[in-house]
Write a structure and sequence with these properties.
Layout lengths: L2 H9 L3 H22 L2 E10 L5 E12 L3 E3 L5 H7 L2 H21 L6 E5 L2 H5 L3 H12 L6 E6 L6 H13 L3 E7 L6 H4 L6 E4 L1 H5 L5 H17 L2 E4 L5 H9 L4 E2 L10 H12 L2
Parallel strand pairs: 2-4, 4-5, 5-6, 6-7, 7-8, 8-9
Antiparallel strand pairs: 1-2, 1-9, 2-3
This protein binds ligand C2E and calcium ion (CA) (3 copies).
The site of one calcium ion has 4 residues, from loops.
Length: 278
């Protein structure tokens, strides 16, 4: 906004218009950022909590804005979703995380599975499976090393969802239900879904050592998963108390600041190297 336009804007400024302008500015910035590739990924290790062995990593996107610095995903993912920009951005995220995983394999690091967050909008894209196939083929990554993390909102329309999930899984890609326990899914239909892993939401982990309800929910999810043959991972493990409470409940896998924050590539390589020599 320049000169006269800016003054006009100030005169007619109302908070709602302000919001709209802010949104539009951010949307334009986001559009440019995708063209200029201002994004990068961090990787947070996932571990076996009884052996402390790394089993994989979650890719998490960050926006490196030239003036504003690093912008976290909570500030732009929902806008990317509502504007449809998540489609090109999500494709870049998938390609980059597969490329990096392949690079680590070729450099001789332990073979690890990469988990990529996929938004409902991407999942509903009719070309989604084709895009994943093309990316894996281009990069030469075995689909076995890719996992996608979907939130429960994807499961609102099962008739539509199940065939897509099956298509993805038939490729050999793993599927994990993110933020499990916070959303819509009822435990009863989980057994009908072609999925591999339940990821217990961090809100339940936060007070698992203090709060009976959280503990009951976490225990129930662990035992349910065991019964129907799914893996369980806990996210947001921050303290030794969390680890101890979860181990007692028979949890096998976890991730969180207690083990490591999400790391840039070089720092992740260092983490993996140190972990391997434990
Ligand atoms: P999420 O998928 O549930 O990711 C977990 C978030 O918790 C991440 O925040 C991670 O950095 C943070 N976290 C990890 N360990 C701990 C811990 O011990 N304690 C606490 N308090 N937090 C922890 P981040 O990276 O800011 O991402 C926030 C959300 O943004 C993600 O939630 C996900 O919904 C979305 N997001 C991030 N990256 C992507 C992406 O590449 N694609 C899409 N579609 N969404 C993404
Ligand atoms: Ca996730
Ligand atoms: Ca989550
Ligand atoms: Ca979340």
């Amino acid at each position: 906004v320049k000169g006269q336009g800016k003054n006009n804007f100030i005169i007619f400024n109302k908070s709602i218009e302000n919001k709209t302008l802010e949104r539009r500015l951010l949307e334009n910035a986001l559009r440019k950022a995708i063209k200029k590739q201002e994004f990068y990924l961090e990787y947070q290790p996932k571990l076996n909590i009884s052996t402390n062995e790394i089993i994989g990593m979650e890719a998490l996107v960050r926006w490196n804005h030239p003036d504003l610095g690093t912008i976290p995903p909570v500030k732009f993912i929902s806008l990317a979703e509502s504007t449809g920009l998540i489609i090109p951005l999500g494709e870049w995220i998938l390609r980059e995380s597969c490329r990096q995983t392949k690079e680590w394999q070729e450099k001789g690091y332990p073979q690890l599975r990469v988990s990529v967050n996929v938004s409902v909008r991407q999942f509903e894209d009719p070309y989604f499976i084709e895009k994943i196939k093309r990316i894996l083929h281009e990069i030469g990554l075995d689909p076995h090393w890719l996992e996608i993390e979907l939130t429960e909102s994807v499961f609102a329309d099962l008739k539509h969802t199940v065939p897509i999930l099956e298509g993805i899984r038939n490729l050999g890609i793993h599927i994990s239900v993110d933020d499990f326990g916070t959303g819509y899914s009822s435990l009863s239909y989980i057994k009908h879904l072609p999925i591999d892993t339940l990821k217990v939401d961090q809100s339940f982990i936060k007070d698992v050592h203090l709060n009976h309800q959280s503990k009951a929910i976490v225990s129930a999810v662990i035992h349910l998963a065991e019964t129907i043959g799914l893996n369980v991972i806990a996210e947001g493990i921050e303290t030794l108390e969390h680890v101890e409470a979860l181990s007692k409940d028979g949890l096998k896998f976890g991730q969180g600041y207690f083990y490591s924050r999400p790391l840039r590539c070089e720092a992740f390589e260092e983490f993996v190297t140190n972990n391997a020599s434990l």
